[in-house]
Specification:
heterodimer, A: 213 residues, mainly alpha, Four Helix Bundle (Hemerythrin (Met), subunit A), disordered N terminus, B: mainly alpha, Cytochrome C Oxidase, Chain A, two-stranded antiparallel ribbon
Chain lengths: 213, 583
Amino acid sequence: MAGSITTDIAGGRGVPPVVRDFGGGDGDGGGRGAHRRAAVTGLLVLLAASVMLFAAFTSAFFVRRGMSNDWVDTPVPGILWMNTGVLVASSLALELARRALRSGRRIAFNRYWTGATLLGVVFLCGQYAGWRQLNDAGIYLATNPSSSFFFLLTCVHAVHLLGGISALGYIDVQALMLRLGPGKRTAVDVSAYFWHFLDGVWIYLMVLFLFWG
Amino acid sequence: MSSPVVHPHHAPTGFIRRYIFSLDHKVIGIQYYFLALFSVFLGMSLSVLMRYHLIYPDAKVGWFEKLWPTGAAGGIMTPELYLSLMTMHGTIMVFFVLTTAPQSGFGNYFLPIQIGAEDMAFPVLNMLSFWTTFLALCVMVAAFFVPGGAPLAGWTAYPPLSAVGALSGPGEGMGQTLWIISIAIFSGASLMGAINFIATIIDLRCKGMSMMRLPLTCWSWFVTAILGLLGFAVLLGAGVLLLLDRMAGTSFFLPAGLLVNDQILNHKGGSPLLWQHLFWFFGHPEVYIAILPGMGVASQLLSTFSRKPIFGYKAMVYAILGIGFLGFFVWGHHMFMSGMNPYSAFAFSVLTMSIGVPSAIKTFNWIGTLWGGRIRFTTAMLFALGFVSLFVTGGISGIFLGQPALDLYFHDTYFVVGHFHMIMGVAAIFGMFAGTFYWFPKVTGRFMNETLGKIHFYLTFIGVYAIFTPMHFLGIAGNPRRYADFTNFDFLGKLLPVHTFMTHAAIYTAVAQLIFLVNLIWSAKKGKRAPDNPWEATTLEWTIPSPPPFDNFAGKHPVVNHGPYEYSVPGAPKDYTMQTDPA
């Protein structure tokens, strides 16, 4: 018995029981299976870090909002509604692309995936337009705490999105050059999951701006 | 049996890909180790200068002026220079030594081998992580050389001082900006490292290596990676806010009506306490990032050199998890002085005390492991025992500081300095020394010199107690910390001899570290040849040649049949059963 006083002190067998547990250990596979699992695990861990980053900003947002009387709600630029639609559409296109890939329709995959990537670029351009609209209305990063958080959160989201677009673009180039072999399916899935996550974060930010902005 | 390889790659032949931009986890581990070694000597040098200044505040030192023409004009160190040395000492030690060597150094080298993998899950990310850390160190050290010099705001960078800019003092201009940028880069590197560690442990364990057969070193690296993941993300966010306050005119941390050097600042509504909350949400888990790997190494060594199974393996695992979990709920105990609601302080205090439970479990289990063992007093074992001693000493003073009523008195005194140096600083460094002596034969194929090692151990062990024990008494006597000069205060006059004693102890202890450096370099070239398993240990790294081949297991795929600490098994042919021995 591992950990019992008598056997441990007497120097007896301290053999922890073998329990099949989570993860890729216990020899249940290797090679591509382990590669795929590790990639998905790595993504989930990365998402956890992103969640913590946005949680930290959200916490600061509410603390800062509640502690002074200089908070002036920042009007959400109208173009952000269109941007939200664009981002959701890009996620849908990615899902259609993955479905096409699973059924072997490569041309459809290329179209949907390219479309999703372009929609991502459109979203970023739309964000830039939104920032300019606020600037034109005299609202800048340091105008008041609300605008500080608005620009901060949208910029940090945009930086994440740049990473996502790079991933989508890489896969798109591979697909268009007919180099999207089975080994890259994991990259397809992981990129899509990351993109959906950014979708979710954006909707969360919109809710934050609309109700507490 | 297929091998759980994620990115099989072949040994590179060119010097640059082999030793500089290497993807091999072992080379990256050594790179981290040497980065930390450079940093620890740099940080230690700064501390010796500080200690020297504390007992000779009026001394004129010619080379001070050469190094710091404005900070030490005429060769006399200014209080501002003292504060910048303090800031850089703390920052370099906490981030580039305590966070780097135990986790990224030893963990990178030995984690994949101990779980039977050929490399980390993402070798390219691993390489990027190291070079990003290197960049962060360069940016941090650059703060010494910019106009105004290094920042003054301490390793915690509390605003308003850290957020106001050059107006608040030398070093608070470009120096503080570089500090924040460096820490942001370091946070990014730590996140990359954490992703790699977690994915590797979860997905790349070899056949038979269940979670409950992991060596405790791997468990500690695993939990440390989780703490780093969650903590550094928050620090990164806080750093961005601080940078915006400094450079973009925002007011996250700066209140209205702030008067600095006769100038009213144009900020309004921010709160310096917001920074403290964000910082310490990272900062307290950071303490465990520093110490947990040392706990893993101590557990590994106490079992190996006592020739006994670790006492209560499962309890040790749950204690590591418990410490990691509770570590996220106690940040407020760093802020008892901030005027927080007494009920909040009470809650943070109770949670802080509760960490004593898993900590005590670990300590008693280490003692239980030693009990009745046939102890081999190698240098590595001595450092592991030293770790336990320092952990207990530093932990007990933590119980005092965890109580708001006592902390209000102790907080700004040397009691705190003594406490955190014992538990976070030297205990963790003893873990590193223990790991170095233990794994050196595996990395180089040679032993470190045991005689030099033991001389180094005894001098260091006595030295650190001589430096840091008196700090507790100074704190009880009311000696404030962060002061550059005590000679102008009547009530501190009688304490100056204690400071003189501590400074001498610090200088002797620092010099003793040269013995370690000589031993490390000499042994790598001339040390006695070591067999593959010189300590008769059980874990996977001792099943392979020394130094290990490029892909660790030379194309073979280990199969684990035993737990990590099967020593003195009744009826077994020898007193240790390797993890790969037949069932």
